[in-house]
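pinging the channel bc i need a second pair of eyes. not urgent but kinda urgent?? the chain im working w is below, pasted from the shared doc
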Amino acid sequence: MRRLLLLLALPAFAETHHIIAEAYHHTFSVAHPVLLRVRPGDTIVTKTVDSAGFDFQNVRRTKTHGNPLTGPFYIEGAEPGDALEVRIDSLKPNRPTGYTGRSVGVKDLPAN
């Protein structure tokens, strides 16, 4: 019961963090420097880059294509094996258009 009361109290102390990364990664790794340390219940407001690495000002922030990642974020108190809930409250494109693609190759042909 004590833990439940603690969890319910977290939003009262929650902070909103505004941050824009200067570096992006194409891998998940503990070797990447932490972009921001947050506590459970905190909100992060950020801007990302597109799959080619261009930011909201159309400046290329990565050397290669491939869906760069924003972060990593360090969650205070999280332990290995914990399940984390991430809620996206708002998602706004930073351009009026976008694209998607699919490469077709031998792997896509029927096996017959």
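so Helices lie at 2-9. and The chain is about 5% helix and 10% strand. — does that match what u expected or am i reading it wrong
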